[in-house]
């Protein structure tokens, strides 16, 4: 089945966006599993149906480097627990998704390695799409109306990285892969998701 067919079938399953309502769709998956690509396809599909979308990428809301590197914790712990201010995002983003007309979010700027306050306006009637890793962690999972998990092998995902990134395999071993294993073992995102897409 093509990705286009999968998107069409997806919209038969997720809650319909009724006038005056917001539906929160999560796109969960580990790094390089294809989350951004599927979001683009969903956006194109709903534009054709005249449905407004509000897309949030969790990587836009990571914290400054000194809060997530060289903290004294193991590297995998830094990535899973300190990459985002999990509780702050719960209060300022997730809890307000259904009611607030706008969100005031601290957005990470890579060039200055700092967060800057950014306003996100949310239409009264829209599909809110949130994509990122670890979306089904206990602090956030209950704020979604429908959750998709993109399942992709570690080997396939790693092969999608550029050569320079692949040469830093020790960082993957100590930081990313251990955090991913922790997520898979403690949260079981495949079992929790409403829909699993093998990508």
Automatic annotation (TrEMBL):
Domain Phosphoribulokinase/uridine kinase: from-to ranges: 24-160
Source species, domain of life: Bacteria
Origin organism lineage: Bacteria, Bacillati, Bacillota, Bacilli, Bacillales
NCBIfam families: PRK07667.1
Origin species: Cytobacillus gottheilii
Protein name according to UniProt: Phosphoribulokinase/uridine kinase domain-containing protein
Pfam families assigned: PRK
